[in-house]
Specification:
Layout (H helix, E strand, L loop, with lengths): L4 H14 L10 E5 L8 E4 L8 E2 L12 H14 L7 H4 L3 H13 L4 E5 L2 H12 L4 E6 L4 H9 L4 E5 L4 H10 L6 E7 L11 H11 L7 E6 L14 H5 L5 E5 L9 E5 L1 H10 L1 H4 L6 H14 L2 H23 L11 E5 L3 H13 L2 E2 L1 E3 L10 E5 L6 H13 L3
Parallel strand pairs: 3-12, 5-6, 5-7, 7-8, 8-9
Antiparallel strand pairs: 1-2, 4-10, 9-10, 11-14, 13-14
Helix pairs in contact: 2-12, 4-12, 5-6, 7-8, 13-15
Length: 406
């Protein structure tokens, strides 16, 4: 039955390959090598025996995926509750670790309610369409993540508008322009932007929205997806909200980055959570994360909020500073900031590919981002600092980088 379709699909993939925009084969991780001689954890790849790689492209900012307490919690819960949840929550019931995790997340973010999703992507895809209707104007930052873009496409928004990256004068102009045309506005932004490591000026965004809220009958909802911020950014890891001393109406984030396991979540007022549990399709019709993952996430959050967690945050902050300074001294363009996402702005597709290959040849894993993942002229290599790294790792990376132009 696929005889006619397969050539069409193959032609599309070939066109992507010809344009140099395919993702390529995925590296297969076969194990890890423990830290030694002042260097951090190394990754082993299938097909590259004897070549431990320095991983500069991992979202595991706090390095908790290998933490003994996290592993022990997941193992114990799997033995107690089984390998999976077996059904969606409203059919098969929920598990105690899920409830505990929702309480823990609400407390962590200073809210009175939280709900879990199978991923942060699922959380965004479920939350936005549930809160957007034909009488809603949805406004988005130009560099928002793919999940936000697709969620807006799936919504039944009466109007859609995009402002230039971090341009709050553009946001205000949109709010003024559409006064009286919609009952409700939803302003959605990444917290920390995944390609650049910069963050939304949330406090100023909220001030702008408050200034114009009276112009809309049902008000202005502010929402951020802070998946790269939570756990990795701010003095205590509360992310963009902590750094900007501001709080969005609705916060979405992941458990799959700094908290080292899997799943996503939303925190908000109880009334919002009650509504989403009845309307968010990706919650109602999709299995939750496993009880074992929830138990592991609870322990990861407890570690992140402890003295150990603060030490880990200080470590990645210092390593990111060392990396940014080294890039600047080597003549590479990057962006200022304290987040462990550190981009090298190459602005050329072929040079980006060549540098990624050079790093790989010297046992370093790094991710090159080319068009259409990023806009033309914004090609970059995204580096991500982790608590698994050491100062010697950063020195080695900078040494290999310096060899590229020789």
């Amino acid at each position: 039955m696929l005889t006619k379709l397969l050539p069409v699909l193959s032609k599309h993939v070939q066109a992507l390959s010809d344009a140099g925009t395919t993702k390529g084969d995925e590296a297969i991780i076969s194990g890890f090598q423990k830290p030694e001689n002042g260097f951090g954890l190394r990754v082993l790849l299938e097909g590259y025996s004897g070549r431990p790689f320095l991983r500069m492209n991992s979202n595991a900012y706090l390095g908790l995926s290998s933490h003994p307490q996290v592993i022990a919690a997941e193992t114990e819960a799997a033995e107690k509750y089984g390998a999976g949840p077996s059904a969606v929550r409203f059919i098969g019931g929920t598990y105690q670790p899920h409830i505990e995790l929702e309480h823990n997340l609400a407390k962590f973010h200073g809210r009175n309610a939280a709900m879990l999703f199978s991923s942060a992507y699922a959380a965004v895809i479920g939350t936005l369409p549930a809160l957007i209707n034909e009488e809603t104007l949805v406004i988005s930052d130009a560099l928002n993540h793919n999940c936000i873009i697709n969620a807006i496409r799936l919504s039944k928004a009466g109007g859609k508008a995009v402002y230039s990256h971090l341009d709050l004068s553009g946001l205000e102009a949109i709010l003024i322009k559409h006064k009286g045309q919609f009952k409700r506005v939803c302003v959605i932004s990444d917290g920390v932007f995944s390609m650049r490591g910069d963050h939304a000026p949330l406090n100023e965004m909220l001030m702008c929205c408050k200034k114009h809220e009276a112009d809309y009958e049902q008000g202005i909802i502010t929402m951020i997806d802070d998946s790269h911020g939570v756990g990795a950014f701010g003095t205590t890891g509360r992310g963009t909200e902590e750094v900007t001393a501001a709080r969005a109406d609705i916060l979405i984030a992941t458990l799959g980055k700094a908290f080292a396991v899997n799943g996503g979540y939303v925190v908000a007022e109880q009334g919002v959570i009650d509504y989403l549990k009845e309307t968010a399709a990706s919650y109602i019709y999709s299995n939750p994360m496993t009880p074992a993952e929830a138990a592991a996430a609870n322990v990861a959050i407890n570690i992140a909020t402890s003295a150990e967690g603060r030490t880990l945050l200080q470590s990645i902050k210092a390593l990111a500073k060392q990396l940014r300074l080294g890039l600047k001294q080597a003549g590479y363009e990057t962006l200022p900031g304290e987040h462990p996402i550190v981009p090298i702005l190459i602005r050329d597709t072929q040079k980006t590919k060549s540098l990624v290959q050079h790093l790989f040849e010297h046992n370093i894993l790094a991710t090159g981002l080319n068009y259409p993942v990023v806009a033309k002229g914004e090609q970059e290599i995204r580096l991500q600092v982790s608590a698994c790294h050491t100062s010697k790792d950063i020195e080695y990376f900078l040494h290999v980088l310096a060899m590229f132009n020789k």
